[in-house]
Amino acid sequence: MNNVVIIGRLVRDPELKFIPSSGMAVANFTLAVDKEMSKEKKSEMQAQGKSTADFIPIVVFGKIAETCANFLAKGRMTAINGRIQTRTYTSNAGEKRYITEVLASRVEFIDWGDKNQPGARPQARPQSNDSFPDFTDDDIFQPTDDDDIPF
């Protein structure tokens, strides 16, 4: 089974392209996914200038690609479900190169808001108590007479 679920933050805005032969949209972006480690180890690595995240390339096709390009931006937290794909190509120098990436079949936006405000948190809906009357404990809890208890 080849199934991947990751949550991370976009390293940069998605890059949207269209396949010339079919016109299908393709979006590419990279997610920074925190490595699992203790706080002490993380602090030590940061002090040494080492990365505490893995950088995972993501590829999305079709309408999802267009949606990602329109609504995702650098710094946004995103959940991805997909599969790992490895492909090869030959560089201009004649070297065989490998690329490992995640082909996303599902993308969930964890941060919402204006695309121009990276890292924005979802805004809570305003709470309204207009539909609930004010009750006191005396209204809800009535004293019980011993004759009303069935045992």
Automatic annotation (TrEMBL):
Start and end residues of each stretch annotated as Disordered: 114-151
In Pfam terms, one family for this protein is SSB
Keyword Nucleotide-binding in record? no
Which InterPro entries does the entry mention? NA-bd_OB-fold, Primosome_PriB/ssb, ssDNA-bd
The listed location of motif Important for interaction with partner proteins is: 146-151
Task: Report the HAMAP family cross-referenced here.
Answer: SSB
What function does this protein fulfil? Answer: Plays an important role in DNA replication, recombination and repair. Binds to ssDNA and to an array of partner proteins to recruit them to their sites of action during DNA metabolism.
Assembly information from the UniProt record: Homotetramer.
Could you identify this protein by its name?
A: Single-stranded DNA-binding protein
- Organism per entry: Dethiosulfatibacter aminovorans DSM 17477
